[in-house]
Design the sequence.
């Protein structure tokens, strides 16, 4: 049995789990694109691929039977280039870290944390203090949080937000049972009913045909004036230009954006995440798609990947099966 | 019933006027912002049965009719209790505990996730390190961390409730015995704080300032903390030794801190006074805010409604809420 670990994340994964892998498993480590020349040989006889991608122009890989993604999204695996009947599995372990980010961002936006702490650090301004009779900032208690996409991340967000005394609503593509932490779960087709009620909207949905451009100018216009938007899903769920207009024009109170419409490349490593200057807006918290990138997430994800490779080698049923090519 | 609103907190227009707007019973209010104005302070205290003030100085004039002193703050450290006549009921306020608990969770999350560093680097130079393309430095999370709360009162309990839902283990230290542990798994007597500190990934100071807590977190206790531990102070600055914590943070003997309460405060002459003699604002592992963790719209509304309710209760002869002591 042979496994191919392809790409820098898979290389790190290999280093993290090599002690847990079956001893009979032969592993080829290819740090694509650095070692691209090694790929044809390694792909030719590998049974298992561990990577975050398999592109259409990659060399033949006739023996793949397990494709284990090192991430949750599998959109970079070109299914037609995989042999028929190959199991494609993803990995989680990020949902709790991302849920922490969502609640953190919600708190920071309502409390105007970046503005207040920045002014205090840079200029010694006490203007927001009770000592100086400052204008109060917000709190999340009693506000309504709407979670768009009530999957693993969304449920973890709800669990953490509930003890703050938030009202929690959710919208989900497939119907879900009402959950202890959520007052109401709308079908995604009824999203327009949910949005006007929310003080904070957290986008936690996967990117797909139903969610591409879901939050467009019309829906942004339905949100409460001054509401906050948090996106940890994929940039394309929100329309870029109308979001910028709503934030720069003061229609929305602010946003925390972790996922982007464009990404860096080897030739442009500091490429901005958007054609619009979101980074210049004082009411926007910007992070480089790393809401889930915690030490705990990596350990949990490695454990899942090692577990699944072991299952495959033993012929046991797999976890986290997304599809079969 | 004569009620005097005194000092730069209780007599502040949006405090006094808001309370007066909520009081149902008939009262005769006097509002005096500047306690240095002795000419006006003498009559303001001479007749008042109720005084709303966060401050009471040794040299305050006689208040022979005073029965009820309502502080608009939680801490009574600016009230010189021995100068009050006998039989005065002193009340503080609540309603801020939920706002402060939100601040505690926000800052422990922000410190663990390195939010400010990451967001600033991304904002300023589009630095994708640790993100986007995958790989790169990892940050922390609070799942599975041990949070130690010093002072397990209303604020401490609200912190515990929220931290527990994040999968933190919560422990606490309290001066007096605690009957109901709430969301904490273990309560240490404050005298055994040294046993609790080495366990904690996050230490939250939610205690009031008093003889037992003044300078409680000194160089010796900072050294008992984990080298990665985070310190959140929303109590009073004087609970921590200023120089010792500055050095511990500067030399990375602890992981980081979020400080909302300070050793120095602004004055009319120095409105932008730095909050310490030490340059905390130059340390990258410190989050700092100007004593505003409780300054939320909701907390102000709850506090001022609570004060108005207490004035009404006093006038009607009902039991007061938030009684701290009777002199």
Sequence:
């Amino acid at each position: 049995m042979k496994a191919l670990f392809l790409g820098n994340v898979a290389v790190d994964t290999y280093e993290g789990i090599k002690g847990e892998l079956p001893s009979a498993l032969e592993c080829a480590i290819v740090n694509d694109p650095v070692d691209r020349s090694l790929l044809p040989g390694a792909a030719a006889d590998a049974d298992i691929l561990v990577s975050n991608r398999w592109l259409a122009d990659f060399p033949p890989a006739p023996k793949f039977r397990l494709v284990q993604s090192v991430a949750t999204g599998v959109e970079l695996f070109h299914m037609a280039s995989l042999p028929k009947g190959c199991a494609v599995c993803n990995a989680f372990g990020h949902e709790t870290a991302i849920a922490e980010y969502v609640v953190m961002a919600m708190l920071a936006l309502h409390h105007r944390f970046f503005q207040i702490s920045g002014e205090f650090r840079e200029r010694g301004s006490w203007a927001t203090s009770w000592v100086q009779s400052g204008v109060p900032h917000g709190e999340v208690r009693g506000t309504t949080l709407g979670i768009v996409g009530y999957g693993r991340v969304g449920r973890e967000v709800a669990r953490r937000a509930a003890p703050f005394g938030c009202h929690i609503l959710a919208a989900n593509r497939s119907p879900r049972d009402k959950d202890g932490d959520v007052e109401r779960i709308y079908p995604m087709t009824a999203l327009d009913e949910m949005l006007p009620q929310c003080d904070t909207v957290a986008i936690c949905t996967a990117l797909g045909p139903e969610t591409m451009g879901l939050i467009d100018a019309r829906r942004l216009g339905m949100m409460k004036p001054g509401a906050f938007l948090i996106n940890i899903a994929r940039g394309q769920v929100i329309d870029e230009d109308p979001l910028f207009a709503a934030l720069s024009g003061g229609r929305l109170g602010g946003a925390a954006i972790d996922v982007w419409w464009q990404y860096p490349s080897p030739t442009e490593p500091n490429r901005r995440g958007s054609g619009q200057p979101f980074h210049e807006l004082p009411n926007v918290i910007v992070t480089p798609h790393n809401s889930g990138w915690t030490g705990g997430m990596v350990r949990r994800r490695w454990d899942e990947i090692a577990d699944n490779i072991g299952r495959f080698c033993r012929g046991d049923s797999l976890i986290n099966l997304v599809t079969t090519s | 019933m004569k009620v005097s609103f005194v000092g730069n907190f209780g007599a502040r227009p949006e405090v006094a006027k808001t309370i007066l707007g909520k009081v149902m019973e008939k009262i005769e209010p006097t509002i005096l912002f500047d306690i240095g104005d002795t000419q006006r302070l003498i009559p303001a205290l001479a007749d008042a049965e109720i005084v709303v003030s966060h401050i009471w100085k040794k040299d305050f004039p006689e208040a022979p009719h005073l029965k009820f002193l309502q502080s608009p703050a939680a801490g009574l450290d600016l009230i010189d209790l021995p100068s009050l006549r006998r039989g005065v009921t002193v009340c503080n306020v609540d309603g801020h505990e939920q706002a402060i608990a939100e601040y505690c969770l926000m800052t422990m999350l922000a410190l663990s996730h390195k939010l400010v560093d990451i967001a600033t680097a991304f904002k300023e130079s589009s630095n994708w390190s640790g993100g986007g393309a995958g790989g790169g430095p990892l940050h922390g999370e609070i799942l599975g961390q041990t949070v130690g709360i010093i002072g397990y009162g209303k604020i401490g309990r609200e912190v515990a409730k929220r931290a527990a839902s994040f999968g933190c283990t919560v422990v606490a230290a309290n001066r007096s015995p605690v009957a109901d542990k709430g969301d904490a798994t273990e309560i240490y007597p404050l005298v055994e704080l040294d046993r609790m500190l080495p366990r904690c990934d996050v230490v939250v100071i939610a205690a009031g300032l008093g003889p037992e807590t003044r300078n409680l977190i000194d160089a010796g206790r900072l050294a008992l903390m984990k080298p990665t531990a985070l310190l959140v102070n929303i109590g009073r600055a004087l609970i921590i030794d200023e120089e010792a914590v500055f050095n511990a943070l500067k030399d990375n003997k602890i992981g980081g801190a979020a400080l909302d309460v300070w050793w120095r405060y602004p004055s009319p002459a120095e409105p932008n006074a730095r909050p310490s003699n030490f340059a905390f604002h130059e340390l990258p592992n410190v989050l700092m805010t100007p004593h505003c963790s409780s300054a939320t719209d909701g907390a102000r509304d709850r506090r001022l409604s609570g004060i108005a309710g207490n004035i009404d209760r006093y006038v009607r002869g009902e039991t007061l809420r938030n009684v701290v002591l009777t002199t």
